[in-house]
Amino acid sequence: MSEIITVGLDLAKNVFQVHGADGVGRAVLRKKLRRAQVLEFFSQLPPCVVAMEACGGAHFWGREIGKLGHDVRLIPPAYVKPFVKRQKNDAADAEAICEAAQRPTMRFVPVKSEETQAAAMVFRVREMLIRQRTQAINALRGHLTEFGQIVPQGAANAKRLVAIVEDPDSGLPAVAIAALKVLITTLSHLEAEIEMLDAEITRRAKANDVARRLMTVPGIGPLIATAIAVLAPPPETFHKARDFAAWLGLVPRQHSTGGKQRLGATTRMGERSLRRLLIIGANSVIIKRHVHAVAKPGTWLGRMLTRKPPMLVRVALANKMARIVWALMARGGVYQSPAAAA
Fold first, then answer.
1. Which domain holds residue 272?
2. If you placed Cys at 245, which of 10, 229, 261, 322 could pair as Cys (CB 3.0 to 4.6 Å)?
3. Helices 174-207, 158-166: crossing angle, 10 deg rounding
């Protein structure tokens, strides 16, 4: 058998597929492995490049296989798909991963440490609780609508919904009140859990040097700063600030040909949570434009607000914030407004 240079590993819950190739890309190994056999197989294999599609479980396997002396490379699934030949199956996926890993211009995802993955769980859990809180509020408002009680949408009006249920003169049936109080109890529990996670995020922001420097940027608070410090790749992953903004999906999608530039909506690629948080932060700057120097009349943002649609301005500002974030992470220092810098 020729020497194995590159291995494509298709991950699964129980049955894994291995595809090995030599120095010229010729297939020299095709093998199925049970979960318990994976580490034993790679421990007997000479050091080589082991490629996998990037996912939550890939980081665990990347750490374990890397300990055996192999060069682990994680590839975004979207970059593997073009290399799949005809029918999709485990063997074809493993071969496509192996083929993609051999491309000299391929982009890879850094393997996350256990500490990084654990820190990111705070934001994942918080997002889930917020979705559940929204569901509880919507259910409460929807049920009250059946009895003619109309309350505007939004979490800020949740107290009005609770007040209607607890009002003895509301005219709601006793059976309905008992059921609605279950929703109120659930809502109160979710609010307490979210507040606890927010306090933990604020504590982490104060203890993290990168997060403290990012919080000097208008529109970036403890939540966004800590999320960027934890979820964003190292700044040296990107050559320039625009690459970081493109990774976040905050640049226009191109469909250009024949030298004609055709730009569409944002690509929405990269980390969805960070993109959403940056747009929310940009929106807070626009809402409170009277207290931010960057939004005063005559500034870039001030001119944009007078001639562009509001949502377009929010995304444009989020793009600019992403570039500033990359500059602060890559070069150090704190944010200085254009007026102060001048």
1. 211-254+264-337
2. 322
3. 150
